[in-house]
Write a structure and sequence with these properties.
The protein has 180 residues and is mainly alpha-helical. 62% of the residues lie in helices and 0% in strands.
Length: 180
């Protein structure tokens, strides 16, 4: 079994980026309430772009990360993060279902580059990188919420609530995987 490194999310983030604001606007004073399937609010291509932007914002030059990836070249953290975040953003919580979608759903297939991970790999990655996945999801959810509200301040005002939504999705995934 491969050893995985565990870094705090703060060590991964490298910079801030400007957010696109291009969707129907909501009242920024509303508490964030996101649909389970965010593709009802944004298309898959926008969702994937935002997920990949947040993953690329991670500090991949961190010496601990570089050393780990050199030791384990088959470990694909960007792919795993992308697949899990896309799944949890589009109401696909089971690792088995995410794996299955990699075979027939074009967006999932694109993210795994036709090298489909096993369901247990996805589950293990989720368990070992829960905080990191929650951070990436939270940042993507914040972008979606801000695009809907039309205000950069709206996401900041609801930071904790958006993070709680991301953590709740990880809990759903954990329960779904426990059923198998």
């Amino acid at each position: 079994m491969l050893t995985r490194i565990h870094l705090t999310p703060e060590r991964w983030w490298s910079c801030e980026v400007q957010l696109p604001l291009n969707a129907r606007h909501l009242n920024s004073s509303e508490a964030p309430s996101l649909p389970l399937d965010l593709t009802t609010w944004v298309d898959y291509s926008s969702l994937i772009v935002w997920i990949e932007e947040e993953i690329l914002r991670l500090d991949w030059n961190n010496p601990l990360v570089v050393e780990h990836l050199e030791q384990y070249p088959d470990y694909r953290p960007k792919t795993m993060l992308s697949l899990l975040c896309l799944g949890y953003s589009s109401q696909v919580f089971s690792s088995q279902e995410i794996q299955a979608r990699c075979h027939y759903h074009p967006e999932f297939a694109l993210l795994c580059d036709r090298v489909v991970p096993f369901a247990d790999e996805l589950t293990r990655f989720r368990r070992k990188n829960r905080i990191l996945i929650a951070e990436v999801l939270g940042r993507v959810f914040k972008k979606i919420w801000q695009s809907r509200c039309g205000s950069a301040a709206a996401g900041d005002a609801w930071e904790k609530e958006i993070r709680d939504i991301a953590l709740a999705r990880l809990d759903i995934a954990r329960h779904m995987d426990a059923c198998y």
